[in-house]
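Dear all,

This email documents one entry for the complex benchmark we are building for the journal club exercise. For each entry we list the sequence lines for every component of the assembly. Then comes the predicted three-dimensional structure of the complex as a token string, followed by one or two observations. Please use this as the template for your own entries, and keep the labels exactly as they appear.
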Amino acid sequence: MAINILLAILATSLATYVSRFLGVITSKKIKENSKIFKWFNCLAYSTLSALLARLIIFPAGALAEVDYLIRFIVVFICLVLFFVSKKNFVYPTVLSALLLAFLSSSF
Amino acid sequence: MINTKYFLKGFFCVKAANSPAIALFASFIAVGALFKSIGLNVQESVFSTFLTYALPGSLIMAESLIVGASLLNIFLAVWLVNARLYPMTVSLFPLLAHKSQPRLKYYLACHFIAVSAWLIMKENYKSVERKYRLDYWIGVGTANLSVAVSATAIGFFIADHLNNDMMIGLAIVNPVYFICVMVGAMKTIQMSLAVILGSVFGISFYFISPEWCILFGGFTAGTLAFFIGELNGN
């Protein structure tokens, strides 16, 4: 291992905390019914959505070993179940793990 | 310092039916197992989750350790992937502001900003009296962080019993949960566009720059969604 693990952990947490910290400083001046607050709300949801899309389409780590078609099918089936179950979060979440583990071991 | 009643009320949100606890638990089990496989000890694994508490950042750190990237590289890569926490903080903390709360408390409480706790708070803040929202938030955050930290430790210890297919199964849980939450949040034109355009632009910008795609894609999509929503009366 080239670098000290402890230093890597500290660098990671510092890099993460910076965004949270700057967020608190910025939000001091922002009123909750202002336009700029609404804009930031859109930005928060769209960056999260961009991250999720990236995780599914261009994954890193374990997910990258599965064919993209399989990942896509699992997400699609889980979304269908989400709507069928009247927006229950537990069923699609549990099913996704079982379905993907099953499909990746069979193909 | 912290109002216990509201703290506990927030803390026990983690038990609710739509809680992210299952997704959080599954994904940090995988993180614990991953940390063990790349040579961290249990203290380092737990310490890392406790201090960082943002999944994509931890994954980047793990990858960087494997390839032996420099500290500066780790810092920049993690900052880029976790910069989404900035708009998330700005779109949450004005809702928690109250003049009776000391400033320092906000700087400590922002450590709990991660998608899981953030979503709970976005759903529930209206039901909490403004004066105590920060205490409630600290409760929500503490509960979620505890789940993440304990799952990391458990993942570390059961790592040898997890085969590759199980690791793959665990890795999909978190994205699927949050995709469902995002789709569930599409209640106005603005929100729906933010979510749909976010994924479209996030992917498109990947072909230009894999490092910057989340930020650039998210920024473009969010701004477009905001303006289109404003023009159409939300």
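Observations: Chain B touches chain A through 109 residues (CB under 8 Å). The radius of gyration of chain B is 18 Å.
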